[in-house]
Amino acid sequence: MLRDAVRVLADERIAPRAAEIDRTAEFPWDVKELLASHDILSLPFPAEYGGLGGELLTVALAIEQISRVCATSGLILAVQELGALPLLLAGTDEQKQRWFPDLAAGRTLIAFALTEAEAGSDAASTRTRAVRDGDDWVIDGSKRFISQGSVADLVAVFAATETSDDTPRHKRLTCFIVEKGTAGFGVERVEHKMGIRGSPTAELGFHGVRVPDANRVGAPGEGFAIAMRTLDRSRPGIAAQAVGIAQGALDVAARYANERRQFGKPIAEFQMIQAMLADMDAGTEAARQLLYKACTEIESGSPDAARWSAMCKLVAGDNAMKVTTDAVQVLGGYGYIDEFPVERMMRDAKITQLYEGTQQIQRIVIARALAGRPD
Amino acid sequence: MHIVVLVKPVPDTASSGERLRPDNRLDRAAVPAVVNANDEYALEAALKLVEAHGGEVTVLTMAPSGATDTIRKALAMGATRGVLVTDEALAGSDIRSTVLVLAAALAGLEFDLVLAGVDTSDGQGGFVGPGVAVKAELPYLSYAAKIEPKPDDRLVTVRRISPTGYDVLESPMPALIACTQALGEPRYPSLKGIMAARSKEIVTKSLADLGLEPEGVGGAVATTEVVGSEAPPARAATRVVREAPDVAAREVVAFLAERRIV
Questions:
Q1: pLDDT tens readout for residues A221-252
Q2: How many C-beta neighbours within 10 Å does residue B56 have?
Q3: Which terminus of chain A is more exposed, N or C, with fewer CB under 10 A?
Q4: Catalytically annotated residues of A
Q5: Which CA distances in Å does B223 have to B27, B94, B95, B96, B120?
Q6: Exposed (0-12), middle (13-18) or buried (19+): which is A333, by Cβ within 10 Å?
Q7: How far apart are CA A72 and CA A15, in angstroms?
Q8: Which of A2, A4, A61 to mutate to test the interface with B (most CBs of B within 10 A)?
Q9: Within a domain: residue B262?
Q10: Does the beta-carbon distance from B192 to A1 stay under 8 Å?
Q11: H/E segment holding residue A20
Q12: Which stretch of DSSP H or E encloses residue A141?
């Protein structure tokens, strides 16, 4: 029922905007308002803080349905969840009271800032520093490739607070919430991207940014663990985006194959096209079922959460890339031009193999889970 | 105010796959079930009434156990709770059995009004509402286009659609009202409503819970029988009038006059 409600909204209100969002590469504030007014942005937040208390699966269903028509729009919900997860997992009741009601209502947006120019897959090598000064912390450094970093009102920033060589690498980071408008904090630049073009990806600068200790999320040194637990719960959101993109491309390709006539019949009657469409459908359904299973496993507290989360993102991301590429193939020349949405979907699909951990990182996570398992 | 709405899950008419099984009973597996459209109008009216006067809406359904899905949709629209009467002995029930069961279920509920759709898109008998009213000894107000309760005076006024306009009926409460689509478009469930519905209560009752004997209801004692069904004849070719408005109007009028429609 929830999936159907979001699907109707996506088809009627978001789909007509998708091509323009991609072309102008402007953040779709109207879509953000639409998601807020239909309580979709409140799905990931607990009911006691003005949210709807949706489980991972519920949020994934919503992201999937929106991403089916517009990956940029689906990412608005995925990033709102991603940015809020550190607070959800490690924030105090006071912090949740302070920030969640506005986030749940969609009055404010939040971004997640872990990646740096020199610390991507190797997140523990973060160079951004935070130094304690009385009741405050002073943050210096910069963060790169931050989704929605330039439109967010709040940013969950990960900075090194323990720098002595005695401290293990994974115990050096601490998470802070930095609010837009804080002195010394600003957007350095917004990237020009291949896909998800309406979702601004920003470089954020921190020059002597002073935040009170009340903005610290979790204990000092706990930041890396919080970031990893966050990604365990947020990767299914990206998998959902990938499943949505793949389904959207498959829908367009299947419809086109039934309408396009060559050699006197619809191309859907040719076996080579049929085989492509069948593989696209089977792959997408397999990715979807793995995603749903991962959501319920993670939600029920599986000790294997990291593995489930990495597997669903790996499978869904690779499937989205393959299916969208094949969709362009089914449409032929028409797939390569912007008259049809599949070329956009193919460009959008690529990001799902890169962010929230590249596919190579997902494989490392899965392999580590295998190695650590008693047999 | 407490309002009970009688809700029936019916095959989705939009799917156009509605059909009977070889034994002439409805093939419920053929198409997904939805809330009967006229019942949705009744539910919308009930929700508006409790929004205006306070109170609760209970959805009452007699159906196979899978009907919790359609009840959940009614709860997502805003109903407070659901009551599902389900029992294997009810398979093949006709209107008579349905009336007995719903009237018995109502006896265990608190209410000021019972709202029912005027008929259902599958059975189209249109007799369950009045039947329940008779059995439960409630005043019956039919074809409602507007419902105005006066809770303090324990009275309800209904505009009943008539061939020439409407009649104004007044009755004491509790009463049973058969609802039409003139009451207004049903709302879409909001996300908030959908999430809230997940934790709302659906009480399941068996015949034994209602104090009814299985021998007295169901297909074996049905007094009516479906002996066959046929698809309606295919519609004749459509004639499209593409002339200018003044010419087209004359042609349409002539066409209708020829058939004595105007």
A1: 999 999 999 999 999 999 999 999 999 999 99
A2: 15
A3: C
A4: 356
A5: 20, 7, 9, 7, 19
A6: exposed
A7: 11
A8: A2
A9: no
A10: no
A11: helix A15-24
A12: strand A136-147
